[in-house]
Every structure is written in structure tokens, then in C-alpha cells.
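Example 3.2
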Amino acid sequence: MQYSFQANLSSEQDTQQIAAIIAHHIQQGVVYLVGDLGAGKTTFTRYWLHSLGHRAAVKSPTYTLVEPYQLAGINIFHFDLYRLNDPYELELMGIRDYVEADNALLLFEWPSRGGDEIPAAELNIVLEKHADHDESAQRYLRLETDNAALFTALQQWQAAR
């Protein structure tokens, strides 16, 4: 991917602001959310969906594999592939129906477990936690995209901090 952005997220507000910037620029496509357990992938997704207008709870799809949302004509599918034993299970659950949906935003947590059954990402987001056992620990975000407008907006946010 052409652009790479990195930032320390020292507060929930930072996470919320970055998610809002991304939501403004990306409402469709395939996104990979990468990070260890507790890194903040679902929290990041919640802020993203709230920025798109979702007002209800955003729960982790750890046990259901996918949580669907529909917001202002956007079909959003939030996947958590952590418990996936074999990528072929995605084919059995009808992954093609999700991938081929009109106006779709597909958010994949643990995308490495999806193998070739999931499409390539247009946006990669990596979240890392700096401290081990503290939920309020500072996060580190690394993002890769080909979206020049998104990259510029993120740089402007960073410069304004």
C-alpha cells in the first residue's frame, strides 16, 4: 500500500477521533484489524460505527463470527475470525454473500485466520497495547492505505495534536 501512518493513541478520545476520520473517508471496502487480544480492535470498530451513525451497542462477533449492521445504505459486516478453525468454514457460512453485498464495508478482526477465503484489504489497521494488564494503556496504531485523502487527514490530525 502506498501510504503508511503511525500514531500513539494516548486516550480513548484519540481512538475516537482517528476512527471518525477513517469513517469520513471509508464507508465501503475491506479492512483488516490486526492486534493481540485486548489491543482494542472491537473498541476501534465501535467508534467507527458510531461515527457512521450507529447508536446501539457494538458487540464483539467472537462467537457469532459476524455482526451485521445497516447504516444509511451501507451494509457493514464486522467479522471476528479468532475462533475459526479452518478458513473453509467461511465458505460454509456463506462468506460470498457478505463479500458480494452492495455498498459493503467488511471489517475483519484476525484476518490471518481467513486465509484465501477473504478478500485482500484496502486498509490495514494494526493496534498494539503498550502496557500488559491495564485496559487504559496507551495504544499504538499503524495504518496502511492507498487512500491519499485519508492519509492527508490523518497527518493533519497528528500535526494539530
